[in-house]
Amino acid sequence: MQTAEAKAAHDAIREGVARLCAQFPGSYWQELDRRRAYPEDFVSALSQAGYLSALIPEQYGGSGLNLTAAAVILQEIHRQGCSAAACHAQMYVMGTVLRHGSAEQKQQYLPGIAAGSLRLQAFAVTEPTSGTDTLSLRTTASREGDDYVLDGQKIWTSRAEHSDLMLLLARTSARDQVRSKTEGLSVFLIDLRELLGRGVSIRPIRTMMNHSTTEVFFDHVRIPGSALIGEEGQGFRYILSGMNAERILIAAECLGDAQWFLAKASAYARERVVFGQPIGANQGIQFPLARAFAHTMAAESIVYQAAGLYDQGLDPGIEANTAKLLAADASWEAGEACLQTHGGFGFAEEFDIERKFRETRLYQVAPISTNLVLCFLAERALGLPKSY
Predict the structure, then answer these.
(1) What is the DSSP secondary-structure string of 130-176?
(2) Quick check: 199 and 222 in contact, CB under 8 A?
């Protein structure tokens, strides 16, 4: 149960985020879509307002808030019709840095990130050949003296062109040289500003939504040993908690999308008159919206349950994955109902529905597909045999 103090704090966050988002109406996002451009002004405004430094401790210039507060921020951004996809990685990778980064790494980077002069927006894990099978990744980080040398390729690394820093998972030991398949992977915090054109190259991938996603290539890239986060070979364990945070925060965005769709559709259904009455009087319009509303309420409950467990330092793998599944399903259901309510107008750019419809569809696939979530829950929650 949320305390009155926490509720007041979260309400204040929502009000502040809503005021900021009001400066970036649908026309702003439509123009970005046409140019496939990055929302520089929006990200700068979030940075200046302190929302992107929510999880950074106060001693480094951040707000020192917890993951629940971060979820509130991202949910409200999406409820207002904006998109946090341009900057949400700065929140969900922060746990790996805070929990496992060295004092020197935190002092070197966190103040700049908190101030907005540095961006940590790129999270490089997925590869063309391994996909979601993270333990099969092939990008290597070979030790050479005091340095590491990176070779390999990452894909679906969003925002790499707009980030100063990157969190990278690479193999430091061959799979046949480690006792467990979860060992031999290491996490690095690398400075892209020093590496672009010096072995690092980035190729944009044009997709159905404007998420600035890319392929990143590493060709004998030398990085200092100080870029290693935590202990060599334990990187997979480090990013697991980050993956839980990612699922929870993406789920919060899906909640916001669902709420935006429902508000948009309900307003239109009250106003649009056909055959002499508002279309919202028809149960064919009412029932899909009402059902999506109920599913969104249910998803919201588990999203914040998962966030609360994460904030207690627990490992809410089952809850985080369930939250991602239910929230993504709720947003897609609400989007479908909203589009159907608007009929042909739903496909018109000016209504923004087609943009949000494309954006929310992604979360049936990323950052983990709904089918893999079901596999995980079947194994971990129900004790069924592993299927992959």
Answers:
(1) TTT-GGG---EEEEETTEEEEEEEEES-TTGGG-SEEEEEEESS-GG
(2) yes
Domains of the chain: 4-115 (1.10.540.10), 120-233 (2.40.110.10), 237-380 (1.20.140.10)
Cβ distance 148 to 209 under 8 Å?
Answer: no
In terms of pTM, does the model score above 0.85?
A: yes
Of 12, 49, 91, 11, the C-alpha closest to 307 is 91
Task: Count Cα atoms within 13 angstroms, Cβ side, for 304.
Answer: 16
Query: pLDDT tens digits for 368-381?
Result: 999 999 999 999 99
Please give the Cα distance from 3 to 140 (Å, whole number). Answer: 47
Could you tell me which residues are beta bridge partners of residue 219? Answer: none
Please report how many Cα atoms fall inside a 13 Å half-sphere around the Cα of residue 322, on the Cβ side.
19
Beta bridge partners of 277: 274
326, 298 in Cβ contact below 8 A?
yes
Alpha-carbon separation of residue 37 from 102, 123, 213, 363 (angstroms): 35, 20, 11, 21
pLDDT-based confidence at 150, cuts 50/70/90? very high
Q: What is the pLDDT of residues 6-29, one digit of tens each?
A: 899 999 999 999 999 999 999 999
The CA angle 141-234-383, to the nearest 5 degrees, is 125
Token pair recorded at residue 320: 């985080």
Count of CB atoms within 10 A of residue 130's CB? 15
